[in-house]
Amino acid sequence: MKPYNNPPKLNTSRKFSDNLTSAHALTLKAKLGEKGNSKGTSYALPAFNITTIQGINAAFDAFETLGSSGVLALSNSALKHFGAGDAITGLEVAANYIESRAKRSSVQIATHLDHGDYTSEGGRKVVQGAVQYLTSVMADNSTDHVNKCARSLEENIGYTREVVNMAHPLGVSVEGELGVLAGEEDEDTKSEISTYTNPEDFEQFITETGVLMIAPTIGTMHGPNKGKPGTKVKLNIELAHELLKIADRIQPETIFVAHGASTLYPQVVEYAVEQLSTLGSNMSDKYGQTWKNFVGTDWEQIQGLIGAGFAKINTDTENRQTFLSALLGAVSENAAKVDIRWYDKKTTEALTQSYLVKLIMAGNYGVWHESKINVDKFKFDLHVALADALKNAQ
Ligand SMILES: [Zn+2]
């Protein structure tokens, strides 16, 4: 008897609260190029890793400005941060806040557990909680982070299938991972090793787990250092197309997810380096080079990924860099301003700009309503306040 026959299908009739839906529903729409009542070219949903209330506000502002579909991703460490050390409390706090924003929103969004681990007791509790609170979960069981090696295919399938059995009947989509991704996102996902996804394993994995979303590894990397400065990240787009053919044959609604697909924004680095030098020559000597050394995934490469079936593009590093850059700018403008809201506003507005540019790059605008700005005119510039940037783009 085969242990992994007939995985449960995603329950698409489940109704979540207002304007919340599964990540699979939104990414499938993107892969099919659906906007309003029309059908065009494929686009992608950048999944924004949310760690604070400001991040959530910035994301909603960006989605509603452009009429975009959204994915708000929460990692284990972000949940602990929201929950003052306890991830389950964090789930409740973050999900409730997002829900009340979503209710008042003009767009549809998904809430997603990033890198849920179903192999440890603590990780399992978070995944079980996420299935109750969120609309999508990642079951990241491909890497053994304790022993720093790839988990066997059988183990990965077994754990992932348990998550699918629990989540799909509730309408919660599941993202699996196959292959080992290099780089460091946070302490839970650090990996020095990496392997490409094997096509035969891929076929067995999607057949037996029933996942509709999968992160294959084709060369993207977590973290700010995706290669030597001045070099390009090597992406194996041919492999992605080979996997897409297999997916089209077995389950055409399969969505590919790119992890570690942050782009580097040169204007953010320039702005940060400028602020560091106004803060003192020791600051620019000490930190300037680190900023200049960051390497990201090129935007053309991301376009290639969308063409190969990727409809969820995980981005985090560039938004963190934008936030920090804006904070340096705020401190260099007035380091004696005793008003938390002022720093909040500066960093939140910068994050909103960062999200806007990524959504525009991914073609994700005009999905739920017309964009409120002219996307061709929008210029990402940290020297300009958000209100002015939006006015210039009308
Ligand atoms: Zn990731």
Which helices and strands, and how do they pair?
Blueprint: H1 23-31, E1 34-35, E2 38-39, E3 45-49, H2 53-66, E4 70-75, H3 76-82, H4 87-103, E5 109-116, H5 121-133, E6 136-139, E7 143-144, E8 149-150, H6 153-167, E9 173-178, H7 199-209, E10 213-216, H8 237-250, E11 255-258, H9 266-278, H10 281-293, H11 299-307, E12 310-315, H12 317-333, H13 340-361, H14 386-392
Helix pairs in contact: 2-4, 2-13, 3-4, 4-5, 6-7, 7-8, 9-10, 9-12, 12-13
The structure holds zinc ion.
- CATH fold field value: TIM Barrel
Largest sheet report:
8 strands, parallel, barrel
Name the helix and strand elements from N-terminus to C-terminus, one letter apiece: HEEEHEHHEHEEEHEHEHEHHHEHHH
Share in β-strands:
5-15%
Mean pLDDT: 92
The CATH first-level class comes to Alpha Beta
CATH superfamily: Aldolase class I
- What is the distance, rounded to the nearest whole angstrom, between the alpha carbons of the first and last residues? 62 Å
Separate helix tally: 14
Q: Quick one: how many beta strands? A: 12
Bound chemical compounds: zinc ion
The side-by-side strand order for the widest beta sheet comes to 3-4-5-6-9-10-11-12
Q: Please give the domain count.
A: 1
Rg, Cα atoms, Å? 20 Å
Low-confidence stretches: none
The second-level CATH architecture is: Alpha-Beta Barrel
> What structural class is derived from the secondary structure elements?
alpha/beta
* Overall spatial form: globular
